Amino acid sequence: xxxxxxxxxxxxxxxxxxxxxxxxxxxxxxxxxxxxxxxxxxxxxxxxxxxxxxxxxxxxxxxxxxxxxxxxxxxxxxxxxxxxxxxxxxxxxxxxxxxxxxxxxxxxxxxxxxxxxxxxxxxxxxxxxxxxxxxxxxxxxxxxxxxxxxxxxxxxxxxxxxxxxxxxxxxxxxxxxxxxxxxxxxxxxxxxxxxxxxxxxxxxxxxxxxxxxxxxxxxxxxxxxxxxxxxxxxxxxxxxxxxxxxxxxxxxxxxxxxxxxxxxxxxxxxxxxxxxxxxxxxxxxxxxxxxxxxxxxxxxxxxxxxxxxxxxxxxxxxxxxxxxxxxxxxxxxxxxxxxxxxxxxxxxxxxxxxxxxxxxxxxxxxxxxxxxxxxxxxxxxxxxxxxxxxxxxxxxxxxxxxxxxxxxxxxxxxxxxxxxxxxxxxxxxxxxxxxxxxxxxxxxxxxxxxxxxxxxxxxxxxxxxxxxxxxxxxxxxxxxxxxxxxxxxxxxxxxxxxxxxxxxxxxxxxxxxxxxxxxxxxxxxxxxxxxxxxxxxxxxxxxxxxxxxxxxxxxxxxxxxxxxxxxxxxxxxxxxxxxxxxxxxxxxxxxxxxxxxxxxxxxxxxxxxxxxxxxxxxxxxxxxxxxx
Length: 628
Description:
By secondary structure, this protein is mainly beta. It is built from 4 helices and 46 strands.
């Protein structure tokens, strides 16, 4: 049977879910989420698979983003023939998303004893490996091979149950979650600078594809071709005008020749002669987004009166269905809701618009992805300086991690009348209380367990905030901070290092707490890219080692890819050091110089900090391990 879903409203309709209240009425197509354009329609197909004789009834539900009628239902009925006993099968998980490389999955089959079932796939690219039939509860395994074409989806059926198998396409892209060339609030104007570095010995090329906010990505979206010589770095001072575009949206980076470039992205308020204030972004691979079944958390600013807060979402190729829960600092639930996004869709809204209520100090927003995948972020902007800071809702990890590290914290004067401080927010996303210690390791010394520490305790869902975390230790200076769990796992930790201008506002960057495994390990290489305008920006390099110390081999190339120098460095265990770029590198870096750091022994977090000489706004760049 078929049901027609028509969009009779204004604008695109996003259908987040299609469902049936009776498992004997199975929705076979289309797969949700999906978008229906204005005045458009789609046909939903259902299969009636009676498990026993007699009349059957169900409600077919359509859940969407219609503000007036977000849920529509259609009554279904049918009559089963024969006298078979009830034989209803269910599967878990409810659907499956596989990477472009393919792979195998095992499904759990729940069925009454004596209920016989057969397993089949509607597409040849899905292979049921074992078993193809059975009785009662059990498992069914299937596999898919590599996918060299476009993303694809098909149904797998086991008895009366079906699920959708989706597989990513063979042309892998990475995502710049947000780009802008547009006026902002309070007289600001935001631009996006982009540096692309080729770490290989052969030329690389590809496309930058711009997807404007508020519309699902399309094949004819604006694109710009890039090409980078071996070892070289290309710089775009404002990437959207280079594509003859303006506004707000996201960008896909699609390699055509060679692999992915190393990228540094900075969204900044351009105040002309008064300098810039901005934030750095990372290039996201699809497997770094929040996927189906994953949960991520954003933490609202500790002082909402001084900063505005936006939430951005970028869905990937299969769209996304997302539930959110807002909790106050004590962990009490304030509101819940859901969002449905079509494929390749970007939006950024004020937190109040996105969530339906204004956020309070240290509120948290927990996102759970029920279908598809998306990149979700929070952007905090100081109302005085117009300085933005960025925080991504990373997938929470299961298990009991014992330690995470915030690479740099400060309560110290800088040059040109700056004074840097560090705020810290800790959140417990688990269902039980957690406790632990914050351990401060001053710069220039090997850290030990006897270093200054303070304890923390967090109730379920609660958040704690430190306006100046080093003041909690009675310390000043520069160093790194370990978050060490004693009860339960480590909390979600977000720090902001900022220049405190008093009534003139703040300028700073957010920094995540990293696992030891996130550091560069022996044999891995990470790359830092120096600022494109050395006269306007000073550049520091920071190192934090772990228990085995670290030996580094460093290679510097100029923006054209020519070798400048190589050298080695050796660091003691659990040591933090930050130096001016001219000291660490042996000379002041040139515009868009690249610094390749290879760890030959031990492990270390390596970062670059670029600070605008006029606004004192710092931005951080972590040297991530190179991926193919």
